[in-house]
Amino acid sequence: MAERKQVVNMSDSLEVIDGVGEKSMEVLLRANFKTIEDLKKETVGYGQRIQQVVDGLKKEKPHFKASYWNSLALRCCKIVERIQRAEATPFVPSPYMCPITKDWMMDPVVAPSGYSYDRSAIVEWLEEDCHDPFT
């Protein structure tokens, strides 16, 4: 089975990352990681920032087991490492990005709504749902 790739822009907020749970997201945001770029550029010290946030959360919720907090910190560090290892692809400027596929438009077409889509993406969309994705 082919690996599914997620396309994100460096300026995207962390909420766009697939598979990040609510608590992990809270830790990353409290550690002041706001965008994908923040995670990519933080090569040293991210573990300490994450641990400081987790230590603060421990004080707010002391009834949780130590294993929970250790697992949460480890999970957050793995998210940062996953983003740092992610393959960089060319930046797709918004006017050239299909809003359905979030990738380059190879054969752009304009719908009656005025939105542009890659022809193959909008044809597939309309076969499933007869409405423009933005109307």
From TrEMBL:
InterPro entries, per the entry: Ubox_domain, WD-SAM-U-box, Znf_RING/FYVE/PHD
GO biological process, one term: protein ubiquitination
GO molecular function: ubiquitin-protein transferase activity
UniProt domain U-box: residue ranges: 91-135
SUPFAM superfamilies tied to this protein: RING/U-box (SSF57850)
PROSITE patterns for the chain: U_BOX (PS51698)
CDD domains with a match to the protein in the record: RING-Ubox_WDSUB1-like
Record-given protein name: U-box domain-containing protein
Natural source organism: Glomus cerebriforme
